[in-house]
Design brief:
With 546 residues, the chain is mostly helical. The protein is 84% helix and 0% strand.
Length: 546
């Protein structure tokens, strides 16, 4: 059992590393992209991306989870022919559904973005990417079902790297004729250029996955040839299995991510009714969607990596009738998630201003920093809810996250309408609704996990990272904010803030690791399976902490 737990955590850690690299790349290229698009362009890009994301979720985004679960169940009992047929059927499925999604995005863009017409071009540019993303998702699900996350991880890094390069390049080329002119037109073409990079990234990631698939194809075909356990399933039966599995997952992820579109529609309509111009509304919405969300999404993406690794692993354990093994995997992956999420939330809260100032030195820096400070707690809620979503799907209860997310979505919509409308706190109303939404999903998922598996969160999943993160936060605050109090004249200098920020972050990481070694209740073996666990253990022993 320990070996199986270790394998899942190692796969999750590997995918986490790739997610971290990809997220950092994704965050860094947004700064030069922002400089070309301007504040209005930030808003247009976010408006288009919100609709792109929801259409992608409906059409094909959830296919990796579905494919990995259905295939993993068959691979666990050595039904290789059946698993291979599932993969082929899934490809047919995404070609049809992904194609429909791409057409919907292209022709529906003027209707989806009726109050923000300058974002229509960016959404139309993204339409072909929806089709290609479904195919890419199938290949990622194939490798995840075989319990290897390396091809997925490498393809994610390649995808994000090419996305970054071509987003900046195309935005630069498309905005050059409008520099010094109308900010609205410059923002529209800058947003369209940024979305071209998304498509190039997906094409690059797909090219690598095709290479990895054909490189491993002989081994797959060999196992299919010697398979004597698979029943002669028809494609109709396989499609029915995929449809029954994919539909609840699509509904879950769709509802789980529908908050962006719901918030966007409510916010835009209320602001428009109040007399705000489309440009002013886009600039405000860009603070939340373009600056706040990508930063908090970095640690949340790491939780998503854990969830991705957990779905096939838990499904395989339950298929083998090994409930204790499933619980052990869940427990250790939640510890891993909190190891990342809690210090991330505290660090983001304390360093919100310098992070925004270094990444986006122009525009409304203070407004975006306030959003980060107030919304940092959602990192913990979202991370836990993402992992528990994956667990419930792996347990064979994919409809439960749908119901929980739908309840939270109703709460979110009501809070957004009240806060943006009668309370008139504009974009901070979206933030309040987002925090409450993430907490509601986390709470409902945890209750469901206890009901279906008898699993409850343990205090030691939170105490060690919380104690360590609080100490880290104190050190970080002293390193960054004391020099600013002593040297107020250089407070606004970019280089000064950037250097202090890097020093504070590096010192914070070191302090956190050392404090974690002092406060944690993990065994040496469990610690070794954490990210950089072996090195941490060596450092702790040198410092006589363990």
């Amino acid at each position: 059992m320990a070996e199986q737990k270790g394998k899942v955590v190692r796969q999750a850690a590997f995918l986490m590393a790739a997610q971290m690299i990809s997220s950092v790349i994704g965050l860094l290229y947004r700064s030069p992209l922002h400089m070309m698009m301007g504040d209005a362009g930030d808003g247009y890009y976010t408006y288009a991306y919100d609709w792109y994301t929801i259409i992608l979720l409906i059409s094909s985004y959830s296919i990796p989870s579905a494919v990995s679960k259905v295939m993993a169940e068959r691979l666990a009992v050595k039904k290789y022919k059946s698993a291979s047929k599932v993969f082929r059927a899934a490809l047919i499925y995404v070609v049809i559904v992904g194609g429909a999604g791409a057409l919907a995005a292209f022709f529906g863009a003027p209707y989806f973005l009726a109050k923000q017409p300058n974002a229509v071009l960016a959404l139309r540019v993204l339409a072909p990417t929806i089709f290609l993303s479904g195919i890419l998702g199938c290949f990622r699900g194939f490798f995840q079902a075989h319990n290897t996350m390396k091809p997925t991880a490498i393809s994610q890094v390649i995808e994000q790297l090419m996305n970054a390069i071509f987003s900046v390049l195309m935005a630069y080329l498309l905005t050059r004729p409008y520099v010094g002119g109308d900010d609205t037109v410059r923002g529209m073409y800058g947003a369209a250029g940024g979305t071209i990079g998304t498509g190039v990234g997906v094409v690059s990631g797909l090219a690598f996955m095709l290479f990895a698939y054909f490189y491993n194809r002989k081994n797959v075909q060999k196992r299919v040839r010697i398979d004597t356990r698979s029943k002669d399933e028809t494609y109709g039966q396989v499609f029915n299995t995929i449809f029954m599995m994919v539909t609840p997952i699509i509904l879950a992820t769709c509802v789980y991510n529908l908050t962006s579109v719901v918030d966007q529609v409510i916010f835009t309509n209320i602001m428009s009714a109040r007399g705000s111009t489309a440009k002013a509304t886009a600039e405000l919405y860009g603070l939340f969607g373009y600056r706040f969300k990508p930063i908090i999404n970095i640690p949340i993406a790491l939780a998503s990596a854990t969830s991705t690794a957990l779905i096939p692993a838990v499904a395989a354990s339950m298929a083998e009738g090994n409930k204790d093994d499933a619980i052990a995997k869940i427990d250790e992956c939640i510890k891993l998630t909190m190891f990342i999420a809690i210090p991330s939330a505290i660090g983001i809260c304390i360093l919100s201003y310098p992070v925004i100032f270094v990444l986006y030195p122009s525009g409304n820096v203070v407004g975006a920093a306030k959003l980060l400070t107030l919304g940092a707690i959602s990192v913990i809620f979202y991370s836990l809810s993402t992992v528990t979503n994956g667990v419930l799907q792996g347990l064979g209860h994919p409809s439960v996250p749908v119901r929980n997310a739908a309840i939270a979505l109703a709460v979110n919509a009501g809070v957004t309408a009240i806060c943006v409308g009668p309370l008139n706190i504009n974009v901070y109303g979206i933030l309040a609704a987002t925090v409450l939404y993430s907490f509601t999903v986390m709470l409902l998922n945890s209750m469901a996990l206890n009901r279906y598996l008898g699993y409850s969160h343990h205090l030691n999943q939170f105490t060690a990272p919380l104690k360590s993160a609080l100490l880290m936060g104190a050190v970080v605050a002293v390193i960054y904010w004391v020099p600013h109090l002593l040297l107020p004249s250089v407070f606004g200098r970019y280089l000064f803030s950037a250097v202090l920020l890097v020093i504070a972050v590096l010192a914070g990481i070191l302090v956190y690791f050392i404090a974690y070694g002092k406060f944690n209740e993990l065994t040496d073996e469990e610690l070794r399976r954490m990210p950089m666990g072996t090195r941490m253990l060596q450092l702790f022993r040198k410092l006589h902490i363990r």
